[in-house]
Amino acid sequence: MKKMGIVLASTASLLMAGAAYATDVKIGVLNDRSGIYADIAGEGSVIAAQMAVEDFKATDKGINVSIVSADHQNKPDVGSNIARQWYDTENVDVIADVPTSSVALAVNEITKEKNKIFLASGPASSDLTGKACSPNTVHWTYDTWALANGTGSAMVAQGGDSWFFVTADYAFGHALERDTSAVVEASGGKVLGAVRHPFPGQDFSSFLLQAQGSGAKVVGLANAGGDTINAVKQASEFGITQGGQSLAALLMFINDVHALGLEVAQGLVLTSAFYWDRNDQTREFSARFQERNAGQKPSMIEAGVYASVLHYLKAVEAVGNKDATKVMAKMKEMPTEDPLFGKGTIRADGRKLHDMYLFRVKKPDQSKGPWDYFETVATIPADKAFRPLAEGGCPLVK
Amino acid sequence: MFELLGIPPQVLFGQLLLGLINGSFYAVLSLGLAVIFGLLNIINFTHGAQYMLGAFGAWMLLNYLGVGYWWAVFIVPPIVGVTGIVLERVLIRRLYHLDHLYGLLLTFGLALIIVGFFRQFFGVSGLPYPPPPLLTGGYNLGFMYLPNSRAWVIAASLIVCLATWFIIEKTRLGAYLRAATENPTMVGAFGINVPLLVTLTYGFGVALAGFAGVLAAPIYAVNPNMGADLIIVVFAVVVIGGMGSILGSILTGFGLGLIEGLTRVFYPEGSAVVIFVIMALVLLVKPAGLFGRSV
User: How many CB atoms lie within 10 A of CB A82?
Assistant: First the structure.
């Protein structure tokens, strides 16, 4: 019956478009499914990809989509092996998500080498559209430059003009520290020092004590997921904020706030590309997502997987086949539009542009219940939210 | 003001104290492992999961039954110990006559199952566990701010470690235990129920892991992976101290905490590996560990 539907649908589109035929597309969702990033991406990203395929009504449009998923364990070697196997022997056309920048940079190279498509929603390093940029990659949701620009500028504007970083010791942490330092110094502040902690970490007390001893006004946490949760929890224990220093969680997800509880997380300022309670469309999607994802609201990464897969499918439909070069050209040519990020564009270097938001975590008495966590401080318009094209050093745009 | 290697003394003292606090966790956990290995000859890889169970136990008591932290300190370790006893009775005891490797595989598999189960139900981000009022706040010691929660961790783990050492080395029960390790058949011939002794010892070792878990709940994120990250380090501690040596595991636990603390000041990037470097060196020079007897 389903096959019949496909035949009918493709016949119909054949009649309409003249040249279309059923296209088989295989999407591989590659992320952390068991470690510290499993709640902000993990199975939720697979669900988001499935929802994109369903909402797009892909089969009706002559596109048969299958989705596979795997756990890269936050290790570049594991991620590279899976990516190669997917591309070489399992006919995967697109890899989506891939949080953990070190893994994403590896997948970025492999995708370019094999001429496939990489829809990067999870990773943060701005190098993906900078010196490591690739004609085969779209960096969808956010990056370290956007986070630094949002949270960094806001903290300096509030008077936080001296910084000390507690940084996760791998590609992502380094990129976030570098980009934030640049923003702080450009706004007239100075960076007093930084300490790099092993990834993933558990005990942050030593590093926080060094931050405390530095006398910096702002302690910038250049880490993510479980590391940020532990660091924020322990910063509160060691009286960092009570002592007059401010804490800047440079990358904070709604799931992290949920895990910390508002008592500890209140007042934190964060930059995000997405919040479920922003408008009717985001609320509608998030309610459906929550039902399928064990009661968890979508993180911005999961939202990015949904939107990027949706845009990819639109491009496949428009091109009429899945040729990576043509589809990528189409993705960059067509403006993007989806219920979660609104209207946007994809730049030549692969950077997806949309508004970013500066949020503040609500006080416990302001929150109406679980997941009601953010209040909007500012909207950063798309043309200001991301690093200007000329400054990234991407060889594609020279 | 004098400086030591470019580090002001107050920073150094602060870091040493923090090292001691981390050492407390290493000490309590490696003590449990040492007790279990000493008597059962089982390399208990489930220990990290049992530590996690302790933290989750405290969380569940608070959220499902409204029972606070101080009660949890006393209630949770015995409960976790009982789950250990069930495992020992049903599964682990079947492997005593086999090579160490079988016990290791079984307990490692059990750990994966337990952690996977919790991950499925609670996710990996963790759950908030607010510290009780008595443990919030802290004292300014001049060279650092010491949160009450950390001071309590040092005190509690020192007490537990010393009490365990005392029971095993200085009491009649401890003498039975040590004798049963040496020669179970002979001790059995004197009318002592050796299998029961072994079961209870395993339960006790597991309860120690649960205790460390309760101590960790207000400090670290309560999440299913919390033990997996720690257990490898703790195993290194046990190997350095000498498998099965009670006092050795306590001293090494605190000592390595200190060394790790210092590494975090001088070369933070290396703090995750320093313990393993020491382990390699110790194994080269003294294969039985610092306090172990060569067999």
Answer: 24
